């Protein structure tokens, strides 16, 4: 299933982004990062929840679901900038600013962030659905969410964070957007508040597992496998789970997050009319 | 009247932005640029149109109207970055990145851009009103609007643009957001499509006059008067009206834009039940 979602998402993005850019270099730079082979995890999560509730994946659902991928791509481009993480490699290719310069990379990011809100607002889903998606995404990605997480990250480089602070950093930097992606499926399919709450909590634990796994891979993965530089966290004195807890305890924390996510999946299966077996495939990502 | 609007806007921003930022340095950096003494022209235009239609300026109208100032401030912060215009001074103070570093400045901009969409979506105006504001602002500010204008600007430094291309650049870089600000007043007060069309056209000519005036001031103004470096356009081989047309013809173009704006003001007075004399004060800005 994930593979099907990825195909639909890639097709939609490749068909619809280029002609949203009114300047040729901006278009090239935007497409360069957007079509660089991302896993499309976030929009795939939204589509999976839609599927679980038997919502057909039409063009409007795709447009609304892909908005989070536009926003995620902006966050990677800005995160890689010389003034931020100063990364040369992303998904096995030179980073956007290495290829187009930091000015154009900044603009490509700005454009993608703004376009995400355009796509959430200009589809044909119900007015309240679209508005709810805008509000949730803005809250997840803004200065109380993802941007605050980034600020904590660059502000605390070289400072040793305690576990609760590290958790808060990750919750904001990575968790908020993944939580949004799962919740968005509940908003698009117009679920009851309790169901949306369960979805959001699943998203929180899934996002936590994702970040712990990412930290882990920076230690035990290879550059070829990850498509980006590894062992960078340690070199840059980044705050990470392995750095704080060691490898064994980090793996244990990952296992706990996955158990909690799986419990929420069971609760969703029990308490709603959806079929969430598709989430198993997403949980298998961490095997 | 403009002075009253500025006071209301400053009060709203100073009361409501800081606690939207969940990281202290991000909050300081965001407030630093937002409260650096901007003229609040864009939200003031929105409030003026609301006033023209006897819409009371309550907290929800203020929140929705101030969103464009958040977005405008982000565009200034990113525009000043070393990778873009590399400016040291803005409104008489060190630019955001000179004070907080380019990383934090990038994040403050990202946060303000995202917060603009949060404020448009989380107020208590009608659902369709909020959604319409989100869509119009995203379109005006995104990769087919303001961001495209910025890309044209940095991409064409040192290249001589013909007048139609320069007009397109300015229409996108500065005009789109001012057009939005005027149109937003029509959306908030739920005007007929023809009225919104007249408002948008007024905004286009007002925005054009604004940009020509700004180019002119870079040549004839002083640093003390402008609060930023002057004569920079020429040094950086920026494409400007005076550079392309000379001073006399630039002043002539400014006069033409103002005549057209004034005609639209008259049409609005004639064809709607609004009282647009307040716009005279905005047009007097260029005296």
Automatic annotation (TrEMBL), chains A, B:
GO CC list: cytoplasm
PANTHER family given in the database record: FARNESYL DIPHOSPHATE SYNTHASE
Superkingdom field: Bacteria
Biological source species: Limosilactobacillus coleohominis 101-4-CHN
Keywords: Isoprene biosynthesis, Magnesium, Metal-binding, Transferase
Enzyme class: transferase
An MF annotation (GO) of this entry: metal ion binding
Protein name as catalogued: Farnesyl diphosphate synthase
One Pfam match: polyprenyl_synt
Gene Ontology biological process terms in this record: terpenoid biosynthetic process
Assigned EC number: 2.5.1.10
Family: Belongs to the FPP/GGPP synthase family.
Record bears the keyword Iron-sulfur: no
Catalysed reactions listed for this entry: isopentenyl diphosphate + (2E)-geranyl diphosphate = (2E,6E)-farnesyl diphosphate + diphosphate
Cofactors, names only: Mg(2+)
């Amino acid at each position: 299933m994930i593979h099907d979602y990825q195909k639909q998402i890639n097709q939609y993005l490749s068909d619809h982004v280029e002609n949203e850019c009114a300047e040729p270099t901006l278009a090239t730079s935007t497409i360069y990062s957007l079509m660089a082979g991302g896993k499309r995890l976030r929009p795939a999560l939204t589509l999976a929840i839609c599927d679980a509730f038997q919502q057909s994946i039409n063009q409007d659902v795709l447009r609304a679901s892909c908005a989070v991928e536009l926003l995620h791509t902006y966050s990677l481009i800005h995160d890689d900038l010389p003034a931020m993480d100063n990364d040369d490699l992303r998904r096995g290719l030179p980073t956007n600013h290495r290829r187009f310069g930091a000015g154009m990379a900044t603009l490509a990011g700005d454009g993608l962030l703004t376009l995400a809100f355009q796509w959430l607002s200009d589809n044909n889903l119900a007015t309240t659905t679209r508005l709810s998606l805008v509000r949730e995404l803005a809250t997840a990605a803004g200065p109380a969410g993802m941007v605050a997480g980034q600020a904590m990250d660059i502000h605390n480089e070289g400072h040793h964070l305690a576990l609760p602070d590290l958790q808060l950093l990750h919750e904001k930097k990575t968790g908020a957007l993944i939580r949004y992606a799962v919740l968005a499926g509940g908003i698009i399919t117009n679920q009851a508040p309790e169901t949306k709450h369960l979805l959001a909590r699943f998203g929180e634990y899934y996002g936590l597992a994702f970040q712990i796994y990412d930290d882990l891979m920076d230690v035990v993965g290879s550059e070829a496998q990850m498509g980006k530089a590894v062992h960078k966290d340690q070199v840059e004195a980044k705050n990470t789970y392995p750095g704080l807890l060691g490898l064994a305890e980090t793996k244990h924390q990952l296992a706990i997050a996955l158990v909690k996510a799986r419990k929420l999946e069971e609760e969703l299966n029990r308490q709603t009319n959806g079929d969430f077996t598709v989430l198993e495939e997403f949980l298998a990502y961490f095997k």
